[in-house]
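Interim report to the steering committee. The following record documents the input for GPR1/FUN34/yaaH family-domain-containing protein (199 residues).
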Amino acid sequence: PLGMLAYGTVFLCSSILTLTGAGVDDTYNLVMVFATFYGGISQTIVGLWEMFLGNTFSATVFGTYGGFNFSYGALYLPQLGLTAAYTVDGQLTQAYYNALGIYMAIWVTEHLDSLITFVFLLGALRTTLPIVGTLGFTVFALACLSANAFTGIDHLATAGGALGICASFGAYYGALSLFWTQQTTYSWVRLNPVILAPV
């Protein structure tokens, strides 16, 4: 649940800022805080716990997205100078958006056109519907955001933001279905995890 809540919260923050038209250069410091200090740290810790428990799939997914959140947060750290390298006369250049598009595309496509998030989606097909939904919406959200960075088409950013919110709610549902248990809350509060295949 910790890893899923961290995943959903970072994606929700980023998606809301995308949908409201907030500019990358002035408000994404909020995303940096969520991505680094909640998503990055929490998901990396969860990945390490899962590795210790022998859960290879969970360890890989949470470790990978922990790294994604650390690197995504680092994009906006002024000390690293990434945005400064792409700024001319106080304005971010198209080269910055192309680089951001490549960055997003890497999380959707990996070497030899294998889809990294899609690979996780395939690996989750026997888990639960919220996990499959979260990964599926993530594939399409990142694809739209990558295409938007390259083309500047606002509708792609809107689609990416909306799909990101869907992914966030899938992550929240998945987390809460594991968190709200018989030991912690009443039966009318609990959520069905919607298991896709019996163990």
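Strands lie at 87-88, 91-92. The committee is asked to note this result when reviewing the revised timeline.
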